[in-house]
Amino acid sequence: MSQPDTKERILDAAEMLFARDGFHFASLRAITTLAKVNLAAVNYHFGSKEALLEEVFKRRLIPLNEIRQAELERVRDLAESEGRAPRAEEVMAAFIVPTVRFCCQDPQAEHFSTLVGRAIAEPDDTVRNVFIHHIMPLFLLFFDLLQKALPDLDIDTVFWRLHFSMGATTHTMRLIGKPELLPEGLNRNIDIDKLLRDLLAFVTAGVVQ
Amino acid sequence: MSQPDTKERILDAAEMLFARDGFHFASLRAITTLAKVNLAAVNYHFGSKEALLEEVFKRRLIPLNEIRQAELERVRDLAESEGRAPRAEEVMAAFIVPTVRFCCQDPQAEHFSTLVGRAIAEPDDTVRNVFIHHIMPLFLLFFDLLQKALPDLDIDTVFWRLHFSMGATTHTMRLIGKPELLPEGLNRNIDIDKLLRDLLAFVTAGVVQ
DNA sequence: GTCTATACGATGATAGAC
DNA sequence: GTCTATCATCGTATAGAC
Q1: Nearest to A187 among B118, B156, B182 (CB)
Q2: pLDDT at B12
């Protein structure tokens, strides 16, 4: 490659402009100008604007998934070594803590969380399947551990309580970095550690009841 | 009006195509073709594509909000007449039950629930802001009642617990009507009444802890 | 007032030369 | 791999028919 960092420069520019202007209003002409590459480079390297968005998304999702997978496996192995079932609170924390922390470590996080929400709601199978393909193995491990933590509940009940918890978590990520959306009279200086404790206490109370 | 239902036909077509394809990929040409009206009719009757989206939302959101408002006021007035604070579970039910039921009662409204799910997750501020603008007054009443129900908690804690509950609810609505997305081994014949009970029990446990 | 036909500028995508 | 030139389609605007 004569320009070995062309793809990276496009990804950086796209991530910045998708975050600042939104997917629709960030034009390929603006992205390629900022990245100092030719307009056609996006379609050459990525195939389409949608595929570029997907790569921007995956660049963050894959490392995050590795962290969450490692945490879930750590909880599973610790419980096994102690000859007990994992505790529901441990399982929830193993997934939720890295998820929320990941979205606070840099200014792009806000957009990443909306991308996750969008992928979940996407009606187009091809786009949604890409997301499902990356999240499903992780979700199944999460689901399996939570079933072990709650052996007295039927599988459907465990699933829906997990689903409720995921909804609470993703909805929360959407608001981090957008404190201007908080109603008047609230503390707009969000304390992430306190928020994480509150969220974990909330979902744990709902999951174990 | 020589075509008294032109606006309604545009709204029906737009609701279906916005839900199926997303706001960005549903073109005005596709919408006006499906509605059997001229392309320019959208800009004549609504002003812009974005204004059309807002009307699509308002047509369903305003009646739904009236139901939810009435339920919240009923809970508030009943508590007042009995000289007590409203109970958290009553407050949560007043909002959540009409919300979930509204999206299951007729096939047209099913498109709306898809739209709401997408609007909240949409990367475009354009789409999300339309939704937030219409839900905010209701949210503030909801918030106020929940503060009265939980007088020992500070305002920020109440807000976040409410926010977690809204996340669980909207995430759940996203899955209703799409049981094919449920993992293998789960009951795909979703029982709305049971689901509502489970969701209410979950958020109530998290809110009151 | 409503509706139609048509045109405009900008966009995402692509073919082909280098 | 990168470029230029070009294309189809997009949202929008407007002139004029009924």
Answers
A1: B156
A2: 94
